[in-house]
Amino acid sequence: MKYSIFSLARAALSGHKNWQRTWRDATPKDRYDVVIIGGGGHGLATAWFLASEYGIKNVAVLEKGWIGSGNAGRNTTIIRSNYGLPGNTGFYELSMKLWERMEQDLNYNAMVSQRGVINLYHSDAQRDAYARRGNTMRINGIDAELLDLAAVKKMMPFLNFDNARFPVQGGLLQRRGGTARHDAVVWGYAHAASGLGVDIIQNCEVTGFVRDANGKVTGVETSRGRIGAGKVGMAVAGSSSRVAEMAGLRLPIESHVLQAFVSEAIKPLIPNVMTFGAGHFYVSQSDKGGLVFGGDIDGYNSYAQRGNLPVMEDVCEGGMALMPMIGRVRLLRQWGGIMDMSMDGSPIIDKTPVDGLYLNAGWCYGGFKATPGSGFVFAHLLARDTPHEEAVRFRLDRFRTGAMIDEKGQGAQPNLH
Amino acid sequence: MRIVCPFCGERELGEFTYLGDAKPVRPAAGAGADAVYDYVYLRDNIAGVMSENWYHGGGCRAWLKVTRNTLTHEISAIEPAAGAGAAKVGA
């Protein structure tokens, strides 16, 4: 069905009792041209771009639980394209441009809100680093503004500007950054992909790969039977190593838990997405009024989708350092998601050494903002067998060749982003 | 998660730092590039019981070998890591 002011009016006049399901819950066929493992934002976006941009409509998305039940439903909903290294800069801007037209493309309200993302700086060295990143962005046609203290004070007068240890000196602002409603992104892609004939199959866990005599992947074994495939794409960040292991692959990835938090609802306070530069704390305010915030990963390997108290304490301390008045706000909810922490903090979108198997993994902290871009370039790779020009550096073999994309410049550690 | 340090007793997680999987061994100096690549970058990333190195920086500063389930965070065994200072004195 197509959503418009008229469909809304019609539904309202009939008491909202006649809304149809927005996407089709399919049962698996014997074979598809492309099977995508993982019904999160990235998998569903890939399916939609395959169908809409590349004309491949005989596609299935397999999800072991319900769509959007993994990291797509567990993030802090931030979108931005403020990256500094070749490889990342262009790719995330591609993604940002797709966010800007997503709702029209999908005919679905994903509540994309370009309220701005500001990274605060607290020292001269950090200002210089931000100035450099901002210049890199502007050279690449991305909006960036370096704000001084007076401009930050005007924009966010509620910050603690008297902090002697971590004085706010200014910030790097990307006005086109912001937030989007994470579940609606999943439903929107499901709605649009399903409308083009993509089968979305839930409660269908992949348990193995079907290989021919040459080792080529020709399908998957699932909890709902064998499904043949011309090509298989993995978009299962958090579980990439587990799925890749079924094909005999070891990845440069560790799975770690990242927590996120929501406070009780308060009146409108935070006008944008804001990050604390002297610790690790990022926050925005949802339309319902809750402060949505997060910080570091817990720091130990985990598949448990729940975290522990030390990081919760650390994150809240970061928030308190920036805005002491939130100490009186109660925490409402807290949850954890499992991140694919790659060894340079950047993603992998590439063919694997196994013929017929394609990999989309390693999103670290940052998978949500990449959703449309990731779907677009992964669809390109699956359809054309060559990487999209904005994803040529996200190679699986870059760790062997030394062509890492390490924004922090810290080397091989699974705690980068 | 709380960790029972063999020297200090049960302590909260914040006192400890994680190093990761205890299985990989640094290749010998003459080992080829493949061995170094494997050691530095590739991971088993076990979903299940894993042997890990933890450092009790907020306590006795000993390295510990912790056997922990990454699916549940359940810890089944903790012992001093081989070569750790406290291990040498026969704890």
Task: Give an overview of the whole structure.
The complex is a heterodimer of chains A (417) and B (91). Chain A has helices at 5-13, 41-52, 88-106, 124-139, 149-155, 182-195, 240-245, 309-322, 371-384, 398-401; strands spanning 31-37, 59-62, 78-79, 117-121, 145-148, 170-174, 178-179, 199-201, 206-211, 217-222, 225-234, 253-265, 273-276, 281-285, 290-301, 331-342, 348-351, 357-361. Chain A has 417 residues and is α/β, with parallel strands linked by helices. Chain A has two domains: 21-108 and 182-252 and 344-401, FAD/NAD(P)-binding domain (3-Layer(bba) Sandwich); 117-176 and 254-342, D-Amino Acid Oxidase, subunit A, domain 2 (D-Amino Acid Oxidase, Chain A, domain 2, 2-Layer Sandwich), CATH 3.30.9.10. In chain A, the strands form three sheets. In chain A, strands 1, 2, 8, 9, 10, 11, 17 and 18 form an eight-stranded mixed sheet that branches. In chain A, a hairpin with a 5-residue loop joins strand 17 (348-351) and strand 18 (357-361). In chain A, helix 3 (88-106) crosses helix 9 (371-384). The longest helix of chain A has 19 residues, at 88-106. Chain B has one domain: Folate-binding superfamily (Folate-binding fold, 2-Layer Sandwich). Chain B is mainly β and 91 residues long. In chain B, strand 4 (49-55) and strand 5 form a beta hairpin. Chain B starts with a strand and ends with a helix. In chain B, the strands form two sheets. Chain B has a four-stranded antiparallel sheet with strand order 3-4-5-6. Chain B is globular and about 40 Å long. Chain B has helices at residues 33-41, 85-88; strands spanning 2-5, 9-12, 17-21, 49-55, 63-69, 75-80. Chain A binds chain B through residues 239, 241-242, 250-255, 299-304, 306, 308-310, 313, 343, 399-400, 412, 414, and chain B through 1, 12-14, 17-18, 20-21, 33, 37, 40-47, 50, 52, 68, 70-73.
